[in-house]
Protein: Formate--tetrahydrofolate ligase
Amino acid sequence: MLSDIEISRQTSLIPIGQIAAVMGLSPHHYRCYGNTRAKIAINAAANRPKQGKLVVVTAVTPTPFGEGKTVTSIGLTQALHRLGHKVCACLRQPSMGPVFGIKGGAAGGGYSQVVPMEELNLHLTGDIHAVSSAHNLAAAALDARLHHEQRLGAEEFTRQSGLAALNIDAERIVWNRVMDHNDRALRSIHVGMGTNNGPERDCSFDITAASELMAVLALSRNLVDMRARIGRLLLAFNTAGKPITAEDLGVAGAMAAILREAIEPTLMQTINGAPCLIHTGPFANIAHGNSSIIADDIALRTSDIVVTEGGFGSDMGFEKFCNIKTRASGNAPDCAVLVVTLKALKSHAGIDAEEIKQPNLAALKQGFVNLQWHIANVKQYGVPVVVAINHFPEDTDAELRWLQQQVLASGANAVAISEAFAQGAKGATVLAGQVLACLTKPRHFKPLYQPEQGLMHNLQVLAERGYGAAGVELSPQALRDLTQIIALGGEQLPLCMAKTQMSISHDAKLKGAPTGFILPISRLQLHAGAGFVTAFAGNIMTMPGLGLTPGYLKLDINARGEIIGF
Amino acid sequence: MLSDIEISRQTSLIPIGQIAAVMGLSPHHYRCYGNTRAKIAINAAANRPKQGKLVVVTAVTPTPFGEGKTVTSIGLTQALHRLGHKVCACLRQPSMGPVFGIKGGAAGGGYSQVVPMEELNLHLTGDIHAVSSAHNLAAAALDARLHHEQRLGAEEFTRQSGLAALNIDAERIVWNRVMDHNDRALRSIHVGMGTNNGPERDCSFDITAASELMAVLALSRNLVDMRARIGRLLLAFNTAGKPITAEDLGVAGAMAAILREAIEPTLMQTINGAPCLIHTGPFANIAHGNSSIIADDIALRTSDIVVTEGGFGSDMGFEKFCNIKTRASGNAPDCAVLVVTLKALKSHAGIDAEEIKQPNLAALKQGFVNLQWHIANVKQYGVPVVVAINHFPEDTDAELRWLQQQVLASGANAVAISEAFAQGAKGATVLAGQVLACLTKPRHFKPLYQPEQGLMHNLQVLAERGYGAAGVELSPQALRDLTQIIALGGEQLPLCMAKTQMSISHDAKLKGAPTGFILPISRLQLHAGAGFVTAFAGNIMTMPGLGLTPGYLKLDINARGEIIGF
Structure:
């Protein structure tokens, strides 16, 4: 079989304007970036009814072997397109961190891809860079203001600048800097050293996918909403303990100006020419893990079926889809697709890389509890669920048969074997049929908790019903954070859990479907712009690092400017 | 008169494909980014003869009042276009640092602008972000390699990774990180703190305009040249004192991949529809200060006259144009335009903001030495020079008359009053006529020095003949650097001086045309990828800071997504 980049490059692309035309969009609704990308105006479909059905693709708990969730999302989209349905995929833009760090590309794979894959993986239309830029402008502005106020004193500062002093408390700046790379050395740094660069202070860089501004972009309904959310961003506290926002610093307008084009989703296409809206890129372990509300909204008004995905397992991106994104958008899932592989379940039974491709029904049975847990998890939101078994060449009929039977016995609405990777649209046709059948069924969506019930109550609900924990425990720091967030008016915001994606619990080593554990919350952070409170379950890194043999080693360009090694 | 953004917004734009068509480019030569921007393929005009004449716009020594060099460059382009000539401007992309820091926009001004000005000032087609991203990938890769090799030891590192250990000396890493903002707090930082993030070390961020990678992009002739230059980038030394390049680290290919689209110039238009190629953005005080060779090359093959500019005074960008850029491109200037204002000359006589608009012939006479110096400086390169007096409403006829006479008496080939700001093309018609006349004259270009004569010799030549110094003095550090650079094979590279732009000397306080000073070189740095050696004249900041009332304070968007406050 050809490599992903070879398949991508041999695809005959449809001019992107034609893809837009199929969605009923006219040239004044979008701006082309070459023939392969188009920025869609956020109000392009505003006067059309929101009639599409929403399919959210999720997965079992991730393993090192890769479950193929994006392959399945794109394959399903391709299959529905091939069957003649008006379908649109809504996906996140890949961060360069993982692109150069691990995977070397994230655009699906095999014959289920968004193309051209190298454009999707590098810059696309620059939105992630815009988020970094706007985010870091606020950080530079904050440190500069601190510098000038300390240098001159409040009174003299006001006399010379005409601005009221903010009296920023250098020890209580909560706004980090960001970078779209895996840069371990920037996790914990000390800035402002040298002469006249101060004051010195400890701070850090997060990866851009974890920026609150990324969440703002993803959760905004329109420009006015985005501008207001940016104004509410909490950057620091003053020496009297009062919050300082981006609006207070006078930087919110400039940040919005930087994001003026990034608020528009980018239209691309799948290998067989189905439309795909790429927009925003929050990770699902350290952020809310779903693509934008604006892209979904456009897709729901221009298509009959919209396929999107939440990051990682259903305890991560899908939970946040239901409890954060749906609350902000009003768009609940009509159906969920839950992706699983035989390898993933064996891995949850403790089988390692060397044995993972061997037939092993016993291990499959043991690891099945993980899939069972995720089926039940999706069902508790009142959403019908189709399990997609992402097929690999080594899968045996006996294993597949056993798994299909068990899935149906566990309450899933349907099960299908997907060969989207090897066969593209054709390989996902059975899955598409099951999804179509599911979409005719009634749906009784209910989120896991009501934000109005308060943070402490909802933390408990999320821990126990969202992850199967026996309870939740707040560190002294988390308790102090909670008191402060309540004082700042954040008591009734939804929760965004930062936790490992490698277990349903907070502990990456607990495979399968752990129970009895206590979820430890180390700290809480108010994100008044995004409109949620982040809870950190244990020690969660918000800046990844590069491994021993990072993805960038393989990448290069040839003399024609084509990328090789993806 | 309307504001710049109002003028920009009321301009009726020509679809960018039509601008390209006027240059003789077909749709397969470019990719449109909406209707206002187009990325031009680097070989778009490769099979056409290089027949254009090259006009380089430079200026007297900058003052706080602004001399209007870009206004004049664009006004001249507009005037030549209006007169029916095939003309193209080649300009740098504005850095967001100054955009949010000081000026609030850099796209010309008044009725001489590149439009839409807000697109030019924010992101454009993302090239500067791409440079930041590629630059910082190398930095992250370097720290990660250091981390893993130290954590495991060389032998175990090789065993686990299959890579030879680089044995990076943590004290001798010469590759900084970059950010396209004025961020004082990042000038001097300490990274790698915390657990398992190390080793800890001191380092810094530069502004992206100072990145060697920006110079690489600007000086590359084609993709293969760029890829080779990236491979040569010196990142660090190993513990045995041997250099470690981007090629050694295995990151050069990925960096080139990130810059794959950034190597293409972006086509825009002036207010009256003349083509303008925007490409790269090195500052002229801390970098080589000129737009790209690739853009010039395309323009020289598609136009009869190409107007470009070197940053700051003729001792800065113009010197670097002649001694660095021309050497790499083979394209020498056919004519120079030297921009001056009455205010600038009065400022060089010590007149301050309160008095600067008053008629003051005595001050004008006193400050005239600065202009005189720059006329002689341009002439010593064998380039004909037209002095453009950028007109302001308060200028008196008596002053203008006196200045014009003196300019001609000082050896300039011609002089013209430019009203490009207030009147656009029409206001620069006289200037255009003088430039056209000049282009018919023979030109005897000679650079100031031959790189083959060696760094020490050329530092002396540059100090004495390039700036009028009595000599040059190297600090002990600079002498050590020199020895090392010679050992590394950089002895015969051109020099790129990092010095203040506010004086012909190294001392910003020395106005007019200082003499008798000794130019102090504090350190030297080999830029093997860019192909020059940077010499630092005194303490030069490579990361600006935000001032008391930064440009971002005025910026915002309205509900239609339009930017206000530029």
